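Question: Send over one sample?
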Amino acid sequence: MEAGFVHLHLHTEFSLLDGATRIKELVKRVADFGMPAVAISDHGVLYGAIDFYNACQAAGVKPIIGCEVYLAPRSIKDKTKQDQTSYHLLLLAKDEVGYKNLIRLSTIANLEGFYYKPRVDKQILREHAQGLIATSSCLAGEIPDALLKDDYERARRLLEEYLDIFGRENFYIELQDHGLPEQRKVNEGLLKLAEQYRLPLLATNDAHYLTREDAAMHDVLLCVQTGSTLDKPDRLKFGTEEFYVKSAQEMAALFPDHPAALANTLEVAARCNLQLEFGRVQLPTPDLPEGKTAMQHLRDLCYESLPRLIPNYNETHTQRLEYELSVIETTGFAPYFLIVRDFAQFARREGIYFGVRGSAAGSFVSYCIGITDIDPIEYDLTFERFLNPERIQMPDIDMDFEDARRDLVIKYVREKYGQERVAQIITFGTLAAKAALRDVARVMNMPPALVDRLAKAIPTQPGMTIEKALAIPEVKQEYERNPDARKLIDMARKLEGITRNASVHAAGVVISKDPLVEHVPLARSADGEPVTQYHMGALEQIGLLKMDFLGLSNLSALAQTVENIRRTRGIEIDVRNLPLDDAKTYEMLGRGDTTGVFQLESAGMRRYIRELRPQNVRELAAMVALYRPGPMDHIPTYINRKHGREPIEYPHPWLEPIL
């Protein structure tokens, strides 16, 4: 049975260190309640919008994308002491126009209006009000603030201003009741305004956590945010334990005299019908000769360079080239290859050392146009691992640049395609097991010796969780015998994995055909550069071109070494044309003298390299491929078979030419 209420004011974990509601758990809860829709309205950002949209769609719940924006008391250009406090304003997108306006508002707030918080002002709201529903919001709203100060006339003037900005049909008087005396006072004024102006009421619960039992966990989270502890009476805290995702029955019990306030949540949900379109690739336009298409130009470049790269090329090469070109034409990714070629050409012109990692080395087209330096035919590399005609998705070319000069490449890309079309990509840090324990211990004033014992007992390794750590004898013993340890671990377990902070992805850069703000909200990184508010997976889903520009210290060291040799000895070395059969080099590797050799210098790899005694690049490539979790178990077998100590066996004779 469908519930008679929809949550329209709700903060997820993407209201960083303020919201404690995880998106998947939220969607499951509202679906279990029978609610037909739910809204997301994080503070000032749209970080979680795409994940929220996907989770709702998967659960058959209508997603309503919103944002509780911060409103500057004056203009966003005003940034003095009196502008430190901002008001809250709830906005919900009715449709694609409203969603795009939310994107613009959040972008402006973060790039132009940031002053303690990302802020908009009323002039900006006027310019981007179309497609949005607004409400009088929570106690931190401008109208409730006036009512709290017994200034009904100001509240009335403000309401008229909002009605002028959004239109009467798009503004609701929002009622909340968390058992706070301030709300009772404000609600009286809000009801009077609603009656005077004949405006609809809207019941919400300003949910910051999932269940009533999560209130204590949320209290700890606020202390993590503010650097406070639970024993400080003046710390930031919510006044009651009522800020959770309530059922329709619980909400009806709060507003028995105003059933329309609950019914109107269903009306608002019915009015919000945003359908996001995914998968349309928004590739920027590469430089093309006049009268040529991207595909024609790509083909010309390949055949122009083929005789130079392989003077004695034959039918094997042309067949492979034609096959790859046909797949690229079918998938429509010719512009992508030309764009990446442009980056590679820039790096070569500027003398910036770079390399390509991953499956892109299997593309003969990439080799022909100068993206890679490896002939995939010579090394039997497979094109389909890179671009598969049966599974059409954007190819992924990860490029390594000298870490000391990576910024030059990003600067070039910004200048080439336009500042408004290029940004780095956000990434979110979560509370890992040990960090959760230490944060909670500090907030709860736990003995440092206790958290040190627990932290030392828990190994630092990927995938380690507090749940797994409880199987460790020392941790289990503390948990069972020490009440403080039990209290600490139970609370840390609740907070573990929650989104803690936003930062910049180490390599990701996004490039768009149109201004990015047409597709994705932007924020500003700690160093002042634009960064997307959506993470890498969401950007790929939207269809934006994502590039990985990795900074590699080994390439910087290599470039500096070559320069030092040139300067001190007068010898010019072309690292792209070194002999690959130098016996002394393989002797050095066989001794395990691999300090400074990328991917070969760890203690484990040195041991295996000494045992392998490689004689060619293929054997080195095999070792690098094997040295990772899973295949690593087969390294001894590979070494023994190489030296003839074990027979080589194939699962089937047909596989022998491949393996």
About this structure: The CA atoms of residues 227 and 441 lie 12 Å apart. The first helix runs from residue 23 to 32. The chain has a mean pLDDT of 92.
